[in-house]
Amino acid sequence: LGLLRRVETYVSEFLSQKSRTNGSFSNLSFSRSSSNCSIATDDGLFEAPEPLSSSKVMMEKVLWRRSMQLRDEQRSWQESRGGREMLEFRRSLPAYKEKDAVLSAISQNQVVIISGETGCGKTTQIPQFILETEIEAIRGAACNIICTQPRRISAMSVSERVAAERGEKLGESVGYKVRLEGVKGRDTHLLFCTTGILLRRLLVDRSLKGVSHVIVDEIHERGMNEDFLLIVLKDLLPRRPELKLILMSATLDAELFASYFGGSQIIHIPGFTYPVRTHFLEDILEMTGYRLTPYNQIDDYGQERMWKMSKQAPRKRKSQIASVVEDALKTADLKDYSLQTRESLSCWNPDSMGFNFIENLLCYICENEGPGAILVFMTGWDDISSLKDKLQAHPRLGDSTRVLLLACHGSMASSEQRLIFDEPEDGVRKIVLATNIAETSITINDVVFVLDCGKAKETSYDALNNTPCLLPSWISKVSSQQRRGRAGRVQPGECYHLYPRCVFDAFVEYQLPEILRTPLQSLCLQIKSLKLGSISEFLSRALQSPELLAVQNAIEYLKLIGALDENENLTVIGRYLTMLPVEPKLGKMLLIGAVLNCLDPVLTVVSGLSVRDPFLTPLDKKDLAEAAKSQFSRDYSDHLALIRAYEGWKNAERDYAGYDYCWKNFLSIQSMKAMDSLRKEFFSLLRDTGLVDANTTSNNEWSYDEHLIGAVICYGLYPGVCSIVNNGKSFSLKTMEDGQVLLYSNSVNSREAKIPFPWLIFNEKIKVNSVFLRDSTAVTDSALLLFGGSLSKGDSDGHLKMLGGYLEFFMKPAVADMYLCLRRELDDLIQDK
Ligand code: CDP
Ligand code: MG
Predict the structure, then answer these.
(1) Is the CB of 119 within 6 Å of ligand 1?
(2) DSSP H or E segment with residue 779
(3) Which of 66, 640, 680, 829 is the most exposed place for a label (fewest CB within 10 A)?
């Protein structure tokens, strides 16, 4: 492989040099003297830049032959009937009309930015234009295009589509790679991958050797990984002058990126969508004659003023609605697009309109409008599943002979996701309930009607309290327009915004980039491991730099868990953590698990926490599901319940009963399988680090005891710790930063009346009105004392987050003193050793 890479680089250098002379290769022959090699082409003799060894000459011949072969294959597909039909379709896409402009911009500039409406053919066509042109120029074998996608599902579905457009199977010239899955062959020249995969490759291959083109797709989303990748690529470009970078965006904010790269060329692909009629809430109410929500159904909800009107005479209702809208106009200062304004709009909460409204509107569309799929944009997964349940129970919408009801969100399994692209049988109406994933990443072709609730769950980060939040918030104007655009793919469409026009007017133009609204710990570690210098200096070069406080918090955390030293350099632990593709806290668990020889159960915990929650809680069977989970609980620990559930599944699998086992116990079989492969992946990574003996296998019969696992969990998740206050019949939980906190109802500990332990270690806390803890394990004083991070330095330090602070805050002074003394002695002992 090493040789192959060297030769590939050599050949691509050679070819790019050749292409500069504009020669053609149709007449290529090699000749070799003892020390040198020359290549004859149509336009003369080309001296190789350095003496070629015979193996290099041979490789070059192989590559050239392969390039010829690729061209022949491409031509014969293009001349076949299937190929001609496909080409006809592709020619109809707006992107195809810009093909020449795009290609010439790419050949003349190192960085090109392409913007164009969703569905115009950016993702499927632009990488193909490059590939086809390279193949046609007999450079196919040397071309290596990487196109990044923010989500797994788009990498997978797009690569499949592009392979089909090229008349190939996946894994020939087109492949994909996402975490744990991928189809890629020896001759793959166009690879769709998630942004994370490319970042991991940069870890081992800083200059992206052999890559000819990097395409970063969907940059308008401004995900953290994409913003990070752009800083790295910006540094790399001067060192790799022949590397081409293409950025693609569904919105028109291209200037921002262009100026970031010092004025790169922008190409805009004029869009083509059929006209979409827009209805805001007031229009919907008027259009449907205010019939949508009978008053008696909505008395639970907050929007009474609006709905009471539905009982009154139409004319009067109309004027009253106008006055409600006017009120809102007054509430919202429309000149000010600040966040403040967005929050003041919460009086127009679409959630509080209830699902009845949406249900009735869907019925109205089914009864009064022509055919076409309906796409409903919902706030989040919980809304989708509750609405789906509700619709399934509806006499008309729940009738599967007339309605095909589907859900679409980022964490669903790939096989499920594919269903949404299928066209239903005649006479059946497809209704897709989706999160904002359907906004730009995936295109469902047959959508004619769009319902837009106007909100999306957005992660945000409260830097002051150092708490991540996941709250529904209003979308941006751009998102709202994107949602609308989804209706006009195949014919004129209709878009129903479930909020008044004045609310839309007060939306912010663009959403805040992710780097400004999430914790930065993993990012900081990545910066250190890529040796990119000082964290804050590096991040100051981002397109938009995060708040200083957020950066400091992240650095502080990494110091606290021992990943960075006082001078912000990676410690030994930190260096190991960067080798493991998990959050630092999970990485720490793996490391200590390996050191303490109890890796097997720890692998299960870490892989379980890295996949979608394996314990399912279907809304209509919530109680049964929670009871099933608590069967696995014996020691006040969700993590140990997970280990038992997994081990049970493994045993059942041996008897070919894994599926039944999952069904009975409300476990997700996909998550179980994903855990299985993650365990293997983590194990082999640990073996590579040398922490685990190369001869051991991951499934040996290490025995373990629950207290040890508790301690390991404590070591990883610290400072995620809260104190348990048992008072008679119940208990309450307190952290130092948040005061009282609550448990998610699917935690086994939430079903306990009492927890006979002093501390609860948790995986994650999230603020949704109150602060909730997810996945927790109860531990003893000694586990916290020995495994809960370092003591504060010096007695008077008083830094609350340090372990000493915890003990002092929650324990009786004399007890805390005793414990601190003990720990100090132990620390000294270890130092002496
Ligand atoms: O990236 P962009 O949103 O500009 O469009 P695209 O993903 O390249 O899709 C271009 C067109 O290809 C879509 O309008 C669909 O008609 C078609 N397509 C498809 O049929 N199946 C897919 N899986 C992806 C795209
Ligand atoms: Mg796209």
Answers:
(1) yes
(2) strand 770-779
(3) 829
123 lines ligand 1 (CB under 6 A): yes
The residue whose CA is least distant from atom 14 of ligand 1 is: 119
Instruction: Name the residue of 123, 124, 249 to mutate for ligand 1: max ligand atoms within 8 A of Cβ.
Output: 124
- ipTM over 0.95? The verdict is yes
pLDDT at 616: 83
Q: Is the CB of 124 under 6 A from ligand 1?
A: yes
Per-residue pLDDT of 246-297, as tens digits, reads 999 987 778 889 999 988 899 999 877 789 999 988 788 777 765 554 333 3
486 lines ligand 1 (CB under 6 A): no
- The owner of tokens 């004392």 is 785
- Give which of 733, 711, 723 is closest to 809, Cα–Cα: 723
Cα dihedral: 482, 484, 488, 493 (round 10): 180
Closest ligand 1 atom to Cα of 118? 3
Residue 495: CB partners within 8 Å, gap ≥ 6? 276, 277, 278, 279, 449, 450, 451, 452, 483, 484, 487
Q: What distance in Å separates the CA atoms of residue 743 and residue 140, rounded to the nearest whole number?
A: 56
E runs forming strands in 190-243? 190-194, 213-216
Give the contacts of 182 (CB within 8 A, at least 6 positions apart). 175, 176, 193
Pick the atom of ligand 1 nearest to 121's CA: 8
Reported as a single tens digit per residue, the pLDDT across 566-621 is: 899 998 889 888 888 788 899 999 998 888 888 899 999 999 988 778 888 776 67
Q: How far is CA 264 from CA 145, 247, 257, 270, 821, in A?
A: 20, 10, 8, 19, 62
Tell me which of 96, 126, 161 to substitute to probe ligand 1's pocket, judged by most ligand atoms within 8 Å of the beta carbon: 161
94 lines ligand 1 (CB under 6 A): no
Which residues, 6+ apart, have CB-to-CB distance to 442 below 8 Å? Answer: 153, 154, 157, 408, 420
Please give the model's pTM, rounded to 2 decimal places: 0.73
Establish whether residue 92 lines the binding site of ligand 1, counting it when its CB lies within 6 angstroms of any ligand atom.
Answer: no
In the block, tokens 């208990």 appear at: 731
Ligand at minimal distance from the CA of 117 is 1
Looking at all shown ligands, the one closest to residue 124's CA atom is 1
- Both tokens of 455, joined, read 């909100």
User: Is residue 74 lining ligand 1, measured as CB closer than 6 Å?
Assistant: no
- Gap from CA of 411 to ligand 1 centroid (Å): 21
List pLDDT tens digits, range 685-716: 888 888 887 666 554 445 567 888 898 999 99
- Please say whether the beta carbons of 710 and 780 come within 8 A: yes
- Cα distance between residue 152 and residue 106, in whole Å: 27
* Predicted local confidence at residue 442, as pLDDT: 75
Looking at the DSSP bridge assignments, the partners of residue 474 are 455
